[in-house]
Amino acid sequence: MTYKIALNFEDGVTRFIDGTATETVADAAYRQGINIPLDCRDGACGTCKCFAESGKYDLGEEYIEDALSADEAEQGYVLTCQMRAQSDCVVRVPASSDVCRTQQASFSGAISAVEQLSDSTIALKIKGESLSRLAFLPGQYVNLQVPGSEQTRAYSFSSLQRDGEVSFLIRNVPGGLMSSFLTGLAKAGDNMTLAGPLGSFYLREIRRPLLLLAGGTGLAPFTAMLEKVAEQGSDHPLHLIYGVTNDFDLVELDRLEAMAASIPNFTYSACVANPDSQYPRKGYVTQHIEPVHLNDGDVDVYLCGPPPMVEAVSHYIREQGITPTNFYYEKFAASAA
């Protein structure tokens, strides 16, 4: 039996390897050209210590306490020279991808669709044979090269990869390099290059209720996450609050409605900050967080939005005197020409 193992390096690069139940993760990585730092290979030095964020695995009994204590093993730390995957796994490696002799992977594809969903948001789809080999964790991003230039822009996947096609929600920035291309020049069939996947903002194993907070096109990683949840299910409730500035910034509501209908335990609400809005819910995301969503701190919070929103949410949660079990966030800012 072969399993997919995601190796997340400290510089944000993610690499997927195949591993069997009978080979160690370190050996599987080495076989596929990735050198996780290690010395002894015998569970004695602790050099290859990593953190298993999700998945089932066997650590055996051949390592010593000095290399990995019982408390560390209980928390999820592993020795990759001893770890054997028993399911798909996600492993955080405390080293850069460069040290481990791996680099960002590059993929190419062609625009399959580009649509201006509103004055502020563009939907982009790219498809290609090489993209069928692109694996990523829902919530991660890639660097898209702007055609006709050497510059790249970072965008989160807004869907899972299906049949070699991936999608993005892109903010339409007046004068922005990518925005100008997509609104003025882009057409189906144009080639685009992607490098990645990257980022430590991704869906972890669901072990408690989730509160998902999206600002503007920060909705993108959550629609990818929800597609994953639709596939694997969840025994815990998930609530998404989606906030925008103006009415015309609201996009993908039909998609969210369909997800709410098809995913048990998933609910969502949207709000518009502009006080002149015609939308039923007005105000900022923080005004629509209810005590039940924070579950007395037994909650994992995922937040993606512009820096002021991230700071406002962090401040609000502190004011409530609550410390979430986990608080994952991704800040983004627009790039001009």
Could you walk me through the main structural features you see in this protein, from its secondary elements to its overall organization?
- By secondary structure, this protein is of the alpha/beta class.
- It has 3 domains: 2-93, Roll (Ubiquitin-like (UB roll)), CATH 3.10.20; 105-198, Elongation Factor Tu (Ef-tu), domain 3 (Beta Barrel), CATH 2.40.30; 210-331, Rossmann fold, CATH 3.40.50.80.
- It is built from 7 helices and 18 strands.
- It has helices at 25-31, 70-75, 177-184, 220-232, 253-262, 291-294, 307-319; strands spanning 2-9, 14-20, 49-54, 57-58, 77-79, 84-85, 89-93, 105-116, 121-127, 141-145, 152-156, 165-171, 191-198, 210-215, 238-244, 266-272, 300-305, 326-331.
- The strands form 4 sheets. It has a 6-stranded antiparallel sheet. It has a 5-stranded mixed sheet with strand order 2-1-7-3-5.
Keywords:
3 domains; globular; Ubiquitin-like (UB roll); Elongation Factor Tu (Ef-tu), domain 3; alpha/beta; six-stranded antiparallel sheet; 337 residues; five-stranded mixed sheet; 18% helix; Rossmann fold
- For this structure, what is the CATH class of the largest domain? Alpha Beta
Head-to-tail CA distance between termini: 49 Å
The percent range for helix content is 10-25%
Q: How much strand?
A: 25-35%
Element-level helix/strand string: EEHEEHEEEEEEEEHEEHEHEHEHE
The geometry reads as globular
Mean pLDDT: 92
| Tally of alpha and pi helices | 7
Strands, count: 18
Going by CATH, the homologous superfamily of the largest domain would be Nucleotide-binding domain of ferredoxin-NADP reductase (FNR) module
Task: Decide which structural class fits the backbone.
Answer: alpha/beta
Radius of gyration from the CA trace? 21 Å
Oligomerization state = single chain
Strand order of the largest sheet: 11-10-13-8-9-12
Largest sheet: 6 strands, antiparallel
CATH topology of the largest domain: Rossmann fold
**Which CATH architecture of the largest domain would you pick?**
3-Layer(aba) Sandwich
Overall tally of structural domains: 3
Low-confidence stretches: none
